[in-house]
Predict the structure.
Amino acid sequence: MKMRCKIIYMIFLILVLCVLVNAKTDRTVNFAGYDWAVKQGYGGPGPNNWDEDSSAVFVDEAGLHLRVLSLNDKWYSSEVYLPTSLGYGTYEFEVASDVSVVDISLVGAVFLYQDDAHEIDVEFSRWHNEVKENAQYVVQPFEVNGNMKRFMLLPPQGNVVQRIMWEPTTILFETLVNGVVVKQWGYVGENNFLPGKERVHINFWQYKGLAPSDLLSKDFVVKKFTFMPMDTGSEICQMVKMQRGKPIEKGFFSGLAKKLKEYFG
């Protein structure tokens, strides 16, 4: 009996060691003072193959580079994301690439993502010429009337700053060129959501898995990212105001308790 237990224990240890040896951790890159995980594998959006290699995702003096490229006759897209929630506040992405001329088959995006029904997007694309505009603000689900604002972004005379101001009752989108707001949209609909499970993402991907129209590799560069959290006192008031007259959303009381603890110490 003792011998049998020892054999089972040894087999268990061997299996654990095999798992540890073969476990693959996500690659990370440090950008704007944050460690970003690099997406890998196959799947949505697109769907796409996602490349975590340093040839696809890297940081240099110009900023964070995300590339769509061909490797061994297969096309890959790229994406990075933060491992933890940042919550309500102001998100700013300074984009160095000319987002007005993104290839018709590609999408460059900065966004907050929890799941497909809880997502706040800014996307630069012409969606394979299916629409005439080249940019859009979206609060998912996009099919809901009033959840999307499309617009035409002209070739900018300077870097574009995309700002998302996320609060419990409103989401304000702003696009700035050389510090001047050129486009703005405020969302006050029903599909705003509570923070905690969302993550900041930046990606550059192939719409419907289509290769670039000229079959050449493309680069999407974000020069800078900053986040300014919402004042805790204001956030508490807004959270309570948002729930007034509505069914209590799952996680509301735990989220409120957490914020009250932060506020009062």
Q: What stands out?
A: DSSP finds three helices and 17 strands in the chain. Residues 24-232 form a domain with the Jelly Rolls fold (CATH 2.60.120.200). The longest strand covers residues 218-229.
